[in-house]
Specification:
The complex is a heterodimer of chains A (425) and B (667). Chain A has 425 residues and is mostly helical. Chain A has 17 helices and 7 strands. The chains are: A mainly alpha (425), B alpha+beta (667).
Amino acid sequence: MSVGPFFSNKDDELLRNGSVRDCLGLVPVWSKVARKLEPNLSGAIGSYHGLQAVLFIYYLEREYVPETLKQRNNFRDFFRYMEALVEYYLFHHLEQKHCYGTRLLKGNGPEVEIKFTSVTTVNGLYQFYRGTCRRAGMLSSDWVLDEAMIEIGKSICNKHSSSIKKLIKIIVKKVEGKDDVIKPLDVFCDSKIAELFESIFRSSKLKQYINKSLYSNADLKYYASACSVVCSKEQDNVGDKPLNLAQRLQNYIAEDKKDWPYFSELKEIYNTEPFLSLLDDCFQLLHLYDGRKLTELATLLAIGIDNTISEIMKTKAQAFKNVILGNQDYETGRFSSLSSLASLLEESDIEEFLIGLLNYHQNIMNARGAGSMILFEDGKLHVLCEVHTLDESTLLDSISDESPWKNSYYINTSAHIYNQLEGAR
Amino acid sequence: MSKNSLVRQTYQQLLDTFEGGQIESLLFTSFNFSASFFENNVLPMAAGCSIKDAGNIQAAQVNEALVKTKITVICDRSTFPEPKTNYRYGLMAVGLKDAFFHPKIILAIGTLKNGESVAELVVGSCNLTLSGWGLNRESVGGCKVGKQQADHLLPLIQWLLAQADAQIQLHGIQSDVFNEEGDIRHNLKSIETFLTGNCRNEIDSSPKFILRLPTKDATRTYLDLLTADINQTVSTCRIVSPFWSKREALEPLLTALSEKNGIEHFYFVPSVGLEGKYCFPEDMREYLKNSSQNSGAYQRFKDNDRYTHAKYMNLFTTDISHCFIGSANFTNAAMGVMSRGNVEAMLHYKFKGTAEIDRDFIELKESDMYWADDSEIDDDAPSVSPYVTHAIYDWKSTTFSCVLECSVDKFKEINNPCFNGQPLSFENQKNGSYKAVINWRVKHPVYVIEIPYIHDTKSCLHKGLVVQCNAEEDQLSYSPKPQLSKIMDDLIALDPIVGPNGGGGSKSSTSEPAEEEVEEGRTFDFFSIYQAFYKQRKYFVNHPENDPFRSSSVFSLSVMFRAITLEIESSKNNGIKHRNEDVIYYFILLIELASTAKELADISTFESGTELIDNIKLAVDELTPDFKQLMTESRVLKQFLHTNVVNVCTVEAILKWFKVQVGYTHE
């Protein structure tokens, strides 16, 4: 071998990385805190009709779908066709909002063809709505339909059995023919099939059943109603500072129902969120400092805005530590790692905190079999995977904000679904 | 002259030289060291993986492929190198008093396809970091090792061996009962023996390798040593360096060079720092303004898109261009007298006429340049820790031992040192150092020791590496459990025609955590299973150069089988009874794996996967009774067959039909 000499170029192959969701692994953290108040709904749920659809599909599976369609991945295919038909029906017939995603309907007229191998595929019902049905007990852990639901299904579907058979026949033909395209307009040309769908989605019995299953605990039902009220009201302020959703809920419930037994759970949300938001802000700032020294960022945060930023960071860390201290619900590895990060801020060591945040992120990514999005080498930061970041002043403002709100804690979803099932309070 | 433009290409070229043969030893030296960069990019390539595949290969696969290649990495301890993880190689940090271990070389020794024993060498300015290999402009070269190169490499290898021995002796352990991770001393000894015994012929076409290792010689500079061969008058000298000493040190060096070779003109190519300012000492700028070498004294690269970390010196005579590339900055520690200063490594090339590397420079006017103040210039020297630690963990005796070197005052600043949560009590030794020994059983290797200390009321932390010794492979986690879910996710994300889209740098995965990262339990998503196997088959059909049965191959069937069996064994060992879903899931998975193996064995040009297929069949046989039991009890099957009892014969018949359908058996 005889090589060179040469001056090296940049090597992009060494830098490539895929897109990453929740790169700090904070979703399971806020989710665990929020599940105490919203035990059932998935954050991705936009319409209770999706829950009706899932129950309908499982009812068909139990009562009508031939065994061939239950074999191997045929049921998944059956589910796909049904998802496509449900989304189409809600949008074009009932003129309702879609359940999940807009790719199918956006920009496509009633003649749209849904192809499972292209962008028109839809799978939100399978991915998110099923889990909600299971958490609420409408489906068992083995995806078996609840007895009460079977009775409701019978009462709705028995009179449409011939339409159901026609529908199933269409889908069986498609599944067995390995046809991955369906044109819902052709299916709903049959008015009897359209009537079947109408009976499902307009069924008050089914709606009541879902309502009862989601809100079996009266105090948590009250919480959903409070979410509905607070989300519909205008922004509250204390002085010129806006309150976040959890604080507004706290204020509202404290006035409306003093004996509500879940105040401490709500407090956990508003003490957790500022720290989780802070982690996200700091991680975005680390991205902005690509190619620069970490100490520059540490100095900026340490002395920023008359030294107030570091104090606010410390306060957020302390509040978070108070939530998890001695709380057995949060004795997990993830919470423990975050607690260590919070301790670094309590000790006012911002540089160590930022390094800790990078290590924490690396551990999260390694556990997923992936690598860090930011490398820390020779004291400098190197971004391997670009993410959307806000500008520096916006991020510093967000860090300075004592009541930021970035994660949902299912509050908007709770309000939304409660409004649909009960009407807005 | 090579057309290479990437450090990685040169490294790949070095590895390719041994294709069909065997690399016995690889030695990497660097000032800084990034373990994550090295383990995710450099090691997979040594394991025969392309950079495109590097993101998808598992640690166990890399480790298996490197069984026959000893790999040693040496770096400078003052840079606080990132601790290694569960990859098969040895890492040693060394230090010099008031100087740095700074050479950046890759040395490979082994056997070529034709049986010839050779050593190949890459020398550059690039550290084993992402910046060094992927971001900066660096200077790089490489050559076959002949007598000249071997004679200059040997003192380095011997010095490193002495360092490795000294680190063990500090702990008062007999070196023959000490087996450190990566067999560092054994590897260095093998390299020494190889260089002494094999590289005895001069190779004219290779550049000269010139080592700088501090000696007792206080009369000679490294610059003298580098330019010793140049006896003609030099018209022009160009120096590219990111770091420069001040005038007090540089002026004598430049004057000596100028007087010796009659240099008429110097070009200085300083680097541009983060703020877009040129980094060159202020007093040197003043000196050049007032000296006879002021005309056109500065140059820059035409393409100014990246930070220049290259170190390069070029001397032009009437017909020869002398090019020096490597680790030495134009500083006193690198170019100055040999009795002190850094360890450095450079290559000396000679070209008739102008070398290609000398194009692409633009002259600059001093007055047009935006200069960094001396205080803003990063001198590449890490802040020196007041502590030096030499720590080992002996897996046989479960003993941790740490020797600490520091001043008495600094010792007093230490605050609650511990190892893996266990407090350490340091005791003063006769030679002034401190030593702590504890007996403590660890579950996994702990590669770093942290010494907290208080300096000026501020909490600080010193971090040092911990050498693992007398450990078994499983204790070092060289064969971590391959994750079935990760393999399936990667397969589903795979474009079987294009191949993996991962790249190195940072292992990529398009798989994302499920919402809330809460496991939904086993779901019957057979669509994904079959999709994964379909892609696996299609990938190997489209990439016949990859052996589907070799465990070091990306998407290897052997690794997949291991992942499945380990998952099954793990639940058995934990006393967890398989749920019905699990039995069905593993049964289907194994059947489909066997079908895939058979299909690929039929078309693969590699050794057949008979052994693997037999092993899969054994695993299937083991699950079959449970699976049959489930079939006889299946409500769905009873409905389907319109019967209340599904007998054994029916089950056998259905199962036979199923196996034929999926290609597990043939009619």
